[in-house]
């Protein structure tokens, strides 16, 4: 069975400007709002399938197109070219530790906008891979009630300090920890056990700071694992997902939907 994929059918796009940046945002669905931030190389067919799945479960989904060409399938060359451009973009500060990434201001404004247009008291935010930590940065804003960090990969983990870094600035992490303690904010994190792009040390840092407010789903991708994941397995909710009961990524997607439903209903 292959990875779920979809196209742009039914998605309506409009530009959104905040924090000095303008990006097209694709929207679809009805119900509580969820921002689905695409992974590298952009809003590819796997991301669109995840968006449709959320729509089918009663959410309004907003997909900001931060990079890449919406709807374009993933190829190695396309992914590499997009990654190269994204890594040098000031908006994402791909290698920085303890720095607020400019894109976080854009995403917080988008969260407030989506919250105002949808039912409920707040919205969810799902970040993936390159954008995984952006979900946590968005949760500084009170409009975000359910951040999901799927294989967060920034800062690029080249040094021990980068591997340990939570992907947000200290003031942002402090603000999220304060919300967790005072308001009961919770976050969900997903990763494969052997994923060097999303290192275990990063989740350890988040667990130390957020405690029980940070729920971790770690899927075994070590040698001889039951489901045949390679040590390179990375994208929990897209590339590695198979819609088979008991498949760990499929079960992780179920938990994401359950988490969003519990926090936003």
Automatic annotation (TrEMBL):
Name any one Pfam family assigned in the record: DLH
Per UniProt, the keywords (alphabetical) are: Hydrolase
Keyword Hydrolase assigned to the entry: answer is yes
Keyword Hydrolase listed? The answer is yes
What InterPro entries does this protein's entry cite? AB_hydrolase_fold (IPR029058), Dienelactn_hydro (IPR002925), Dienelactone_hydrolase-like (IPR051049)
Query: Which intervals hold domain Dienelactone hydrolase?
Result: 30-262
Q: Which GO terms describe its molecular function?
A: hydrolase activity
Protein name, UniProt field = Dienelactone hydrolase
**Taxonomic lineage from the root:** Bacteria, Bacillati, Actinomycetota, Actinomycetes, Mycobacteriales
């Amino acid at each position: 069975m292959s990875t779920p994929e979809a196209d742009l059918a039914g998605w309506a796009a409009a530009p959104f400007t905040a924090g000095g940046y303008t990006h097209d945002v694709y929207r679809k669905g009805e119900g509580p709002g969820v921002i689905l931030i695409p992974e590298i190389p952009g809003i590819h067919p796997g991301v669109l399938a995840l968006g449709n799945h959320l729509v089918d479960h009663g959410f309004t989904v907003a997909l900001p197109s931060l990079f890449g060409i919406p709807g374009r399938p993933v190829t190695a060359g396309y992914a590499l070219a997009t990654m190269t451009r994204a890594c040098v973009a000031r908006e994402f500060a791909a290698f920085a530790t303890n720095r607020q990434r400019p894109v976080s201001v854009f995403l917080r404004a988008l969260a407030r906008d989506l919250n105002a247009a949808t039912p409920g008291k707040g919205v969810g935010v799902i970040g993936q891979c390159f954008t995984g930590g952006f979900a946590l940065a968005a949760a500084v804003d009170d409009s975000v009630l359910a951040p999901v960090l799927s294989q967060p990969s920034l800062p690029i983990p080249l040094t021990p300090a980068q591997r340990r870094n939570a992907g947000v600035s200290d003031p942002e992490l402090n603000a999220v920890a304060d919300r967790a303690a005072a308001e009961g904010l919770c976050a969900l994190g997903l990763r494969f056990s052997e994923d060097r792009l999303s290192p275990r040390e990063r989740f350890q840092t988040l667990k130390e700071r957020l405690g029980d407010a940070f729920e971790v789903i770690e899927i075994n991708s070590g040698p001889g694992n039951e489901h045949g994941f390679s040590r390179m397995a990375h994208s929990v909710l897209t590339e590695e997902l198979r819609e088979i009961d008991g498949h760990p990524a499929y079960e992780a997607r179920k938990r994401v939907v359950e988490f969003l439903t519990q926090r936003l209903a």
